[in-house]
Amino acid sequence: MTYQICTNCVMDTSDESIHFDTNGVCDHCNGFETNVMPDWHTGEDGRRMLAEIIDKIKAEGQGKEFDCILGMSGGLDSSYMLHLLVTEFGLRPLVFHVDGGWNTDIAVNNIQMLVEKLGLDLYTEVINWEDMRDFQLAFFKSGVPHLDLPQDHAFVATLYHFANKHGIKYIMNGGNISTECVRNPLQWLYYGTDMAQINDIRRQFCTRPLKHYPFSSVLFHKVYLRYIKGVEVVKPLNLLPYTKELAINTLSEKYGWRAYPQKHFESRFTKFYEGYWLPTRFGYDTRRVQYSSLILTGQMTRDEALQRLEKPAYDPETIDDEFEYIATKLGITAEELRLYHSMPLKSYRDYKNQAWMFDLGAKAMRALGLERNIKR
Amino acid sequence: MIGIINYGSGNIAALMNIFRQGRIDHCLCTAPADLEQADRFLLPGVGAFDPTMAQLDHSGILEALRVQVFEANRPVLGICVGMHLLAEGSDEGNLPGLGWIKGRVRKIDTTGLSSPPLLPHMGWNSVNLQGGSALFDGIDGAQGFYFLHSYYFDASADEDITATVDYGGNLPCAVERGRVFGVQFHPEKSHANGVRLLRNFAELV
Amino acid sequence: MLRSRIVPVLLIHDGGLVKTRQFTDHKYVGDPINAVKIFNEKAVDELTLLDIDATVQGEGPDFVRLQKIAIESRMPLCYGGGITTAEQAAQIIALGFEKVSISAAALERPKLIREMADQVGTQSVVVTVDVRKEGFMGGYAVYSHNGKRKHKVKLIEYIREAEALGAGEIVVNMIDRDGMMAGYDLKLAKIVRDATTVPLTFVGGAGDSTHMAALIETVGTCGAAAGSMFVFKGTYRAVLISYARPSV
After folding, report:
1. Could you report the predicted ipTM of this complex, rounded to two decimals?
2. pTM
3. Using an 8 Å Cβ cutoff, are C211 and C245 in contact?
């Protein structure tokens, strides 16, 4: 395939499924009007919809210690959402943080600042490190790009289990169109809850039974919790004006919140993985997705994005230390880690998977009008 | 390139760590020939004066270091007991010191301290910078450094003292004469100030 | 002016970090490597790591792990757990630690304190004493092996002996207050302070900065150490690393 980059955003043929129209505009951009815009309500109607949801959450939460739950990574979206929910809407969220073993000082500082200044209490779950380590190493050994699955899966699974255990019906989600309307291609970041894939990679590469690791099948949280237990996922950031700049300014001013060099860099692992591993091993640069989102929502110019993409996502000054740290933390040598970096490239298709089922589910959701912007 | 004099004494690993973290060029100098790779030297040291001095003497590296400092005019920085070695002698032992800076190592006089803890002088203490030393460029004296010692270098000439620390009196904690530098505290364990000081040393012209 | 040292204490158990209450009730708080890295980034005054399995399992220090930890640190480090010889202490210092702590081994063979001081210097020898309140007279008994083995020595006599043998620092760990976060035992701190002139560090009971301020008010410049306070947040004991110095 010859190289091509979208004339409107900065997505290019590193996304293997990308399509361009005759004007050289990609399908991410072309799908924006039909797949994204209908879910995005930054005006009066959004306010009204949000107010209705908030009223419902409050009414159902009366007499309970918490009326909703919020997963807090210390990142921008979850931090800003927490600020809004408490100060603007008077909700009483249970703030829940999952510690996967890779927190940065900035992340723990940001969480601390927010819960302290908002007078909230925090719940945490620490994932057993020996299990996490083994699971993450299994993904390195498998050669696939979606190495962040063990962290992501643990975060999602733990949050849903916790909500279920405490009988909390509303899960507040920081997912938003403003900064993430272009989705990471499936080829880059595969579904985090495909148990067929997870089990195949576990079977082939794990050295421990992962007794303490929290697994959750998509059937549990997308079907059982939602349709049997009536747990609802709410994305408030799509129902009001939300921009990256506004969020950073508000949070740093009110809470002494500290910004990260890039989205998802609150985890040392994700920083290394998205900043170094994915671009240098696979040529996948998640900044393309992030910047394209910002371009589509009018927060960045294409020129600025292109200019930023010229520099690597990692800091060449510190990458050697970071590489060494990742290896040390995983309990392997830097040489072993380099070996995984140079091994043949694999994709989710090289292991058992239920992509067809997810695909079918997504199409059904789209047909039912429940979800439009599906991953591909 | 900083050559760390590796003569069997001192917290070499901690120094290597901080140079690696601060991305400061460094190498280990274990044999006289190793000194050729470097253009400045770090003389660490922990433990008592006599055994440390004896170790340096027996390492066979001392003469090469002397040549580098006094003939090639290359800087050397002594840390903690490495600083003490630069003196003429020590109350802690009987061996003569290098005598590269005039003065003697003495036990901290605790009569000036109103209450315990007395010795060792342990923890973070602010330093009074005398000014003019490139080694302390951009250093926050109030934040200070991490100290861990019972003896100090009582330098004879006031103009050789570049910083003092208040502990039962004003004790010299950094000395400097020509290309010879010494600090009592542990820059390798003093966070931002420590990294800054070591970088200053690495960039001395 | 010499400042009091505000010291996080991390306990290693089964390869992970735990926090105890009264030396039992272990709660898993994560992996040591990343925790040390965060404390390093927070520029803490000193960090103490105690392997609470080593002595009771009759094992020496895990040098490989300690090296990994030292490599990530540019803060003063102290290690304790399973040390029985001066050579082990020297090995730990060589990895990049400033201080080595002994507890059970010093109670069994006090001369080890002298041997270590000769080998690594007084300033690097830390003697840790675990104590529990005992009897009607408000006395204190000395323990080792995670509070399971009681020793006949008198607390004050033992501390004076340790100082005479060359201890550069005494750490007093109050078992009854461990993990309770209700404040230090100030009476104990005062008694110990009056008995020796070496630097002291107290651990057991700190729940917030005011407890540390009260300790410093009582005994002057010292080490105020804490576990729970720096790893837990809020009433639900959420695991979240933080660090703050009292304003004194």
Report:
1. 0.96
2. 0.96
3. no
